[in-house]
Design goal:
Blueprint (H helix, E strand, L loop, with lengths): L8 E2 L10 H20 L4 H11 L2 H23 L5 H31 L3 H23 L5 H22 L2 H21 L1 H6 L1 H10 L1 E3 L4 E3 H18 L1 H22 L8 H17 L1
Antiparallel strand pairs: 1-3, 2-3
Amino acid sequence: MVKSGLAELFFSSKSGKVNFIFPIFFAIVISLFLVQVILLVSPYEDATVVSLQRSFSSLTVVNLLVVSVLAGVVLFGLFRFKKIRIQTASKLLVAMFIEGGMLAILLFGKLLFISLGLESPIFLVFVAIVAYIGSYFVFLSFVNSLSRKAKNRLFIVSSGSLGSFLGLLLPLSVVIVVSVILAVVDAFLIQTKVFRGFLGEAKYEQMIVELAFSTSEWGIGIGDLIGYSIIVSSASANFGLVVGGFSLLLILVGALVTMKLTSKQRQVPGLPIATALGLLPSIFLLVF
């Protein structure tokens, strides 16, 4: 089995040649569905996208970046001073990821209820249901009571909802810049083997398996699924469903190319090729 980092694909030479496409496809379809639901219930799609993106101010982006950096620094410090085990850290990250996906669904629900003009008590019922489901699965993941199949399904739903939320609310230029940066960082981390050297081979592989949609033969990092969903949902929100669908097809082509490369090399970052292809429609329409 060939394994790689958080935002990458890894495959076995005996694995199915196409099966790994399905989680990518379904995560992106979920993101497309959520974006289109919000746009369809609004009278003017262009005005809806612009108003939503304006409400998501630059200060909010800075806050998200600050929180992400602080979380990374805290985890690094805990690892560095041996205060936390890899298994515990993996559980924390998985729980945070699932909770983030449920939060994104709540926010989409709020937008949907506002657009439909529904009364607030109905929304409170929706909040209670989603909060209960999210907390229940977070608890199960933390106590290690989730089956691999259930965890994989939650990864798909959470990736699609988080990706669609960010793709809809972030301006297109920000999505392009962030996606390129993530692809470059992904390639840098894989080529330099920073995490593998810091954690050690066994602990590194253990964390990767926990933080990926995985089977007994192959897996896809949740970082990939979120990145792909952001690109496609942003394309769909800004240029329409057809452009979003075309971006989806290009990402799948990029994932297939990555798989071919991974079968020949031990490690190949999963984001760069698929990101470059998936951004082409948006960049072309933005420029021309």
